[in-house]
Amino acid sequence: MAGPRKVSKEQYDEFRSKMEEKYGYDEMSDEEKKDFDEKIDQVAVVDHKTDQTDADDGDEREERERGDGHPHSLEDDDDENIR
User: Fold this and answer.
1) Distance of alpha carbon 36 from alpha carbon 30, whole angstroms
2) Torsions phi, psi of 34, nearest 5?
3) 18, 36, 65, 81 — which has fewest CB within 10 A?
4) Crossing angle between the packed helical segments 9-23 and 30-43, to the nearest 10 degrees
């Protein structure tokens, strides 16, 4: 088995909400809810790496990697030093 699919927090919440509604989570006993929770976690889990990179702006990340504070990205320098 490949294991649970890693998804963003938003995707996980949407999936879980649909499954709770479909299978009547609110009417389940505590034991049934526990089983349901375990089964959901076998299918999907939140990938925290995805959430962090989504919140990070790509241009800011490139400027930090460049390290000299110039406002243009790393891509601008690809051919600069080739002669």
Assistant:
1) 10
2) -60, -45
3) 81
4) 140
Provide the residue-wise pLDDT of the chain in tens; the chain has 83 residues.
Answer: 578 999 999 999 999 999 999 999 999 999 999 999 999 999 999 998 754 544 444 545 444 555 555 555 445 555 555 55
Q: Provide the 10 A C-beta neighbour count for residue 12.
A: 21
Nearest CA to 47 out of 2, 1, 12 is that of 12
Strand 44-46 and strand 5-7: pairing?
Answer: parallel
| Phi, psi torsion values for 45, nearest 5 degrees | -135, 155
Confidence (pLDDT) at 37: 95
Rama region for 7: left / alpha / beta (φ>0; ψ in -120 to 50; rest): beta
